[in-house]
């Protein structure tokens, strides 16, 4: 994959994830505020559950941003598009679908038990 295409994909993915993280953070603040409001316990329980979900989603999005940052470093170092495990080329179609991919599809599959 050409560097310009990789940069564009990573920029787009970063923007998408940052927007999702911003929305999740706002939602989490709202849920926290609602959970602290006086009212019946059922209402607070729902807000607390939503808050936990927001926190879990935000953690996943922060992990995704970290993966994007690692991919950007690999692009700068000239190793973008290569598996971290084997060094094999990651096919362009996989990078189009996930520009932060660190492994080939086969390497990313969980081991099967026979």
Describe the structure.
The protein has 114 residues and is an all-alpha fold. The protein has a single domain, classed as Four Helix Bundle (Hemerythrin (Met), subunit A) (Up-down Bundle), CATH 1.20.120. The protein is 70% helix and 0% strand. It contains four helices and no strands. Helix 1 (3-35) packs antiparallel against helix 2. The protein is flat, with a radius of gyration of 19 Å. The mean pLDDT is 86.
In short:
This protein is mainly alpha-helical and 114 residues long.
Name the CATH superfamily assignment: DksA, coiled-coil domain
First-last Cα distance: 36 Å
Main β-sheet: number of strands, strand sense, barrel status? none
Number of helices: 4
Form type:
flat
CATH top level label: Mainly Alpha
- Unreliable stretches: none
Helices and strands, in N-to-C order?
HHHH
Computed Rg: 19 Å
- Please give the share of residues in helix: over 70%
CATH-scheme architecture: Up-down Bundle
Q: Under CATH, the topology is which?
A: Four Helix Bundle (Hemerythrin (Met), subunit A)
Notable characteristics:
114 residues; mainly alpha; Four Helix Bundle (Hemerythrin (Met), subunit A); 4 helices; 70% helix
Question: Which helices and strands, and how do they pair?
Answer:
Blueprint: H1 3-35, H2 41-77, H3 92-97, H4 105-108
Helix pairs in contact: 1-2
